[in-house]
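Record copied across here:
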Amino acid sequence: MPSIKQQKLFNIEEVSEIFPEYYLIKVNNFNDVAKNTLDEWIYFLKKSQIKEEFTAQGLAEAKENLLVDSLSEEERANYLRYMENKRYEISIIEGSRSEGRLEGREEGIKEGIEQGKQQEKANIARTFKHEGINILRHKPKNNLLKLRQVYFVLSLLPKRYK
């Protein structure tokens, strides 16, 4: 029986609810006839073989590992090197994709900001036209003068256009 503290901490009534269940399977007593997926695993554990007709979950990966284990040391080293190179290639490709997506997003944000600025300028021009305001009767000689004119005109606009 768990203590009151354990009952509250783990939300249990029996100690057995904390620990996993273990089953001992005596593979030597197995009659080599696989009737279900558990039998397929027992067959594999006993014989270190996987029949083609076996369908138990995880046996395909076990079969691949079994094949690798059956290679000579030199073949296994070559295979493991090959697999490591493939993982590295995939990592590089995925990293490049992620980097490309990030750069694309950043570029898209910059373009969106620029479009927003252009749209804002167009809206201001429409507002000036609607109000009959001629913002530039003459061309200013520098950007500071142009900016002062824009601020002056904006200060004349009613609040609803600001």
